[in-house]
Amino acid sequence: MCERMEKYAKKNLSTEQSPKSEKTRIQIKNEHTGGTQCNKASSQKRTQETDAVSLLDFRFLKENRLRKREDFQKVYANGKRIKGRFMTAFLMPSETPFQRIGFTASKKAIGKAYQRNRAKRLLREAYRLSKKELNELDTNYDWVLNARRSLLEVKLDEPLEEFRQIVEKVKNSEQEINKGEEDVVG
Length: 186
Known about the structure:
The structure is a single chain. The protein is built from 7 helices and 4 strands. It is of the alpha+beta class. Helix 5 (113-129) packs across helix 7 (157-185).
């Protein structure tokens, strides 16, 4: 049986490579520039300069998340609450050298699983895009963001703006506390 297969393979299967054709790409006329897409793509430089440090700042690491129920309960019990139209933020000064955050979207407040997932995605992205503002705070906090039903009716820009306003309120309250301490000391 093996001999028959070898003979068949020698007879019907070629081990030689086929010669390459002169033009392997199909060139399509580009209406907008008058050139071809193939030529245009090869002439463009594909490298893009990015600041690696700024890209790393947008990561959302495990150490930056509140993950245990006890952590959430501690923030609810001892933290400050700030209500907004799209979210309720609970925050408490943290012992960690960085900001930590947790997100909640309850079945009672939001609804079905896909709606809760979208709400948490929006809150997560609002937090991630506000890292610059969060880094300007004097104190590191543990945050818990609770989604509200109205969050599902909007795109990212409105919850992002609301979260940045909440961070600004926290920053202002920190400045007032620091100013009060200076008055007492001075």
